[in-house]
Fold:
Amino acid sequence: MNEREHPRSEALPPVLFYWRTKTAESFDERARAEVTAFVGRISATMPEWRAAIRGDAAAAVGLVVGRRISEHIDVRVDLSMTVLLACAFFDPAAALVMSHTLARMPIEPRERARLSASWSMHKIWLGSRRAGTGEPKTPPR
Structure:
């Protein structure tokens, strides 16, 4: 294993690990803003990445769906999942993909189940809010 393939975690911003360490309901306004600001600072040349970074949930889903899940999580996975995370805050489809992708990740099984379930519940909450009075403002605490 070389440094380029698996950079040391200490050198990366903590926001890159939120998708695999924080449940959906643990994101308050400040944490969501931190993720959104981080994603907004990502520079990309590929059109699908640029669209996802701008908040296009379908493009963010496209970055993740169909990708092979490897034995180790690297910075490419952290980046694509963080972009998806920013969309999963407000988009039910992105939250569903977050849940299903987390369920397949090489994370400790109990933590994987806990994280996946939280995003599944968030997807349901988002869907119920959209069906009711309009777009969600804040997730349940």
Q: What stands out?
A: Helices lie at 29-40, 47-53, 57-64, 75-88, 92-102, 109-131. The two ends are 41 Å apart (CA to CA).
